[in-house]
Amino acid sequence: MLRWPRRVVRFYTDGFRSMTVGRKLWVIIIIKLIVIFGVLKLFFFPDFLGSRYDSDADRAGAVRESLTSVDSNCF
Questions:
Q1: CA angle, 55 as apex, 54 and 60 as ends, to 5°?
Q2: Would you say residue 13 lies in a domain?
Q3: Mean pLDDT of 62-74
Q4: pTM over the 0.70 mark
């Protein structure tokens, strides 16, 4: 008798092996994820801490200050 992790893996591998339309859908999903996490990250989420601060201590201080500062507009 196979243990449950092996049974789960076998279930999914057999299911993916017998897919026809699903393979095309998975390719589309993977391409979308690459675009979302790869391309958009490059253009819309630049590394501000790396470009503005020289050391890890300076970066940590900036993050700490940002998290602990009280903004009067929030209340």
A1: 115
A2: no
A3: 78
A4: no
H or E element that contains 8? helix 4-17
* Host H or E run for residue 24: helix 21-34
Whether 24 contacts 31, CB under 8 Å: no
Contact status, residue 57 vs residue 63, Cβ threshold 8 Å? no
pLDDT one-digit tens code per residue, 15-55? 888 887 877 888 899 999 998 888 888 888 778 888 899 99
Residue position matching structure tokens 């196979």: 2
Domain presence at residue 6: no
Collect all residues with Cβ–Cβ distance below 8 Å to 2 and sequence separation of at least 6: 10
Judge whether 2 lies within some domain. Answer: no
Domain, as residue range, for 34: 20-67
Q: Three-class SS of residue 62? A: helix
